[in-house]
Amino acid sequence: MTTPTPDEPPAPTPAPAFGPAAHDRAALPRSTVTVARFADYAGAQQAVDYLSDNGFPVARTAIIGTDLRLVEHVLGRLTTGRAAVAGLAGGAWFGLFVGILFTLFSTANWVGILLTTIVIGALWGAVFGATAHAMTGGRRDFTSRSSLQAGEYAVTVEAEVAEEARVLITRMHWRSAN
User: Fold this and answer.
1) Over the stretch 45-72, which tens digit does the pLDDT of each residue have?
2) Helices (H), 2-151
3) In a 10 Å sphere around its CB, with 0-12 CB exposed, 13-18 middle and 19+ buried, how is residue 66 labelled?
4) pLDDT of 41 strictly over 50
């Protein structure tokens, strides 16, 4: 390959015949079609699993949850004592971690080091847990677990393979009905 001289213009780069360059095509959104709707995630997951078992290209599939809502399940009352116990447990785990690190670089009694770091971690964890709960002033005296739930789950596929997916899902429903 030669470099152009100042009198010679650079060679033009070939342009694609039509549309974007090959590296840009992957970024274009593809049209999708909803092939089934389910009331629960397990049903949608079962449908995609059935598609996969029957050789369908599931990389062209998505499960989309709609009508999302946040559900917080209250697990129980949180007292200062329970907050201290939770902090104690977390602190003990952290103390175990620190103790393992110390024993790796120490030639002294490793059991003593490990037990000492667990006890110190547990004590500090209990103090911090109780103090943090007391500082809330009773504004949140319960423990809970949050989860996102959808009202409906749609199985969508790329438009090019939608008919094949519909046939397979219809066959799945037909077999489960018999």
Assistant:
1) 999 999 999 999 999 999 999 999 999 9
2) 22-25, 41-53, 80-104, 110-135
3) exposed
4) yes
Strand ranges across the sheet with 152-158 = 32-38, 152-158, 61-66
Q: Indicate whether 113 pLDDT > 80.
A: yes
**What are the tokens at 126?**
């209990």
Cα 152 to Cα 36, 64, 68, 146, distances in angstroms: 10, 8, 9, 19
CB-CB contact of 4 with 135 (8 Å): no
The widest CA-to-CA distance across the chain, in whole angstroms, is 86
Ordered DSSP codes for 146-159: EEEE-SEEEEEEEG
Mean pLDDT for the stretch of residues 142-163 = 93
Quote the DSSP letter at residue 71: E
Is 83 in a helix, a strand, or coil? helix
- Tokens at 74, concatenated: 């209250």
The string of pLDDT tens digits covering residues 137-151 is 878 889 899 999 999
Q: For the CA atoms of 92, 95, 100, 101, what is the dihedral angle to 10 degrees? A: 160
**Is 26 or 103 the better-scoring residue by pLDDT?**
103
